[in-house]
Amino acid sequence: MDSNIKIVPACLESLDELSKLFQSYRIFYKKEPDTEGEKQFLRERITNKESVIYLAKSGGESEDKFIGFVQLFPMFSSTRITRLWLLNDLYVDENYRKSGAASLLIERSKELARETNYAGLMLQTAKTNTTAQSVYDRNEFVQDDNFYSYYWFNK
Question: Residue 133 falls within a domain, yes or no?
């Protein structure tokens, strides 16, 4: 693990760098780039405090090279009668994969769950995304074999 990677909260001052990473993340998931829409989406999440976003920064304090991010949304669990964090987005620039940045972002997310007294973290990933699955396995996530995911979209 690279000891020069630091995890910092995203803020409006880091919006440009975060937006670039976010766009790369969306392209990975076969979405068309939308520079203004992506930036507006992130600006609203940060401004309205609707999500928590952490950035991975490489190179120590003097260098502001952001290499990855995680975005978490609060949600409720009726069956657990408590809250969970939905780890909705996790991305590390392909040039920095295997640097430990993803594990550091996940660890910071776990710390957030402990700090906020939420029950834990929940996430989904594509069945074909074996790279991400190995990261989650190494970071103590348990794969759910009992439930299917279903979606309905209005468009």
Answer: yes
